[in-house]
Amino acid sequence: MSNHFSAAYLKFPGDDARLDLTDLFAFPASGDTGRTVLIIDVNPFTTGLSATPPFLMSAELHPDAVYRINIDNDGDNQADAAFSFVFTEASGGGQTGTAFYATGADARSAEPRGEVLARAVPVGFDASARPVRAGRCRLFTGVRSDPFFADAEGALHGFEWTGQDAFAGKDVQSIALEVPDDMLGPEPVIHLWATVSVRRDGALVQVDRGGHPTINPFINPEYAKDAYNTGHPTDDVANYLEPWTKILEGNGYPSAEARAAAATVLPDLLRYDRRLPAAYPNGRALTDDVFIARMAFLTNGKITEGGVPSHDDLPAEFPHLGPPHR
Question: Deepest in the core among 106, 144, 189, 309, taking most CB within 10 A?
């Protein structure tokens, strides 16, 4: 999985699927070199079944959560711009969302601050949902087909590939933005990560995060996953360079190569140079086979095949994710 089921022992952060960040994408808008698409997906297997009661998962977004895309545009591993999203129950049923855009100190606040891009945006629960204008941006929130693809069973059982995509036919809750490039920063190179926080006893507590795909679920041992989800990129090198180097050494890397490889994914930020084509690790497109890329990383190049094809339900137009399956 990418960042699906990212809490310890393949559970959800806070035991709530709505708080589980699954993926972060960044790529150029179709036909417009001056705009960028940013997507975060949450709530894996939205229309599927869970392994534990109550079995049926909610398709909603958490009303006490803050979903956020953080952008570092000066290389200090701190947010210089941030898009935050909160959701409430609509008076006539369903949900609506509010989108915020913050810069400077407001971008580093745990609370959603800054300019309100849009209010009362309906959350879509079927194929009829459409994007809306949000200031200078376009915004989509709603259930969509999960674009992530992987033979998860094969990876969990010694790379005995089954040829089955564990994520085919599954849905997620998606928050997609198409933004003018100048809102991301003055330089073409940016670094991104997504976070999910939830309000507990009046305070926001971060429960999930991710920049690179397939990092926390596959790199960290089970006991370390939850602590990792609460962390911040500024601490990643100090906290994880040595233990991750040891893990890679155990996977067949010579010592110096293990340290260099671990350093390529620390801190856990998705680098995107907008002058270059978007293909992971430069940004991330919806068809990038990040699962096999991570398996190759983990095994020092021993596993480079065994992937399943990307999904064929990705429309060319924004929000670029297929309609929900339910």
Answer: 144
* CB-CB neighbours of 13 under 10 Å: 26
Comparing CA positions, the residue from 5, 52, 296 lying closest to residue 148 is 5
Q: How far is CA 288 from CA 2, 77, 238, 279, 283, in A?
A: 12, 25, 29, 6, 10
pLDDT of residue 1: 60
Report pLDDT digits (tens) over 198-217: 999 989 999 999 999 999 99
d(CA 85, CA 121): 10
List % helix, strand, coil for the chain (3-state, nearest 5): 20, 35, 45
Strand partners, 103: 81
- Evaluate the omega torsion of the peptide bond into residue 324 and state whether it is cis, within 30 degrees of 0: no
DSSP H helices in 84-164: 152-156
Element (H, E) at 248: helix 236-250
Buried-state track 61-84, b at ≥16 Cβ within 10 A, e below 16? bbeebbbbbbbbbeeebebbbbbb
Q: Give the confidence band of 49 by pLDDT, cuts at 50, 70, 90.
A: very low
How does pLDDT run across 125-178, given as a tens digit for each residue? 999 999 999 999 999 999 999 999 999 999 888 889 999 999 999 999 999 999
pLDDT at 249 over 50: yes
Domains in the chain: boundaries = 8-298
d(CA 48, CA 122): 23
Q: State residue 173's pLDDT score.
A: 96
Closest CA to 315 of 144, 63, 197: 144
pTM of the model: 0.96
Tokens 């958490």 belong to 62
In angstroms, the CA 43 to CA 256 distance is 38
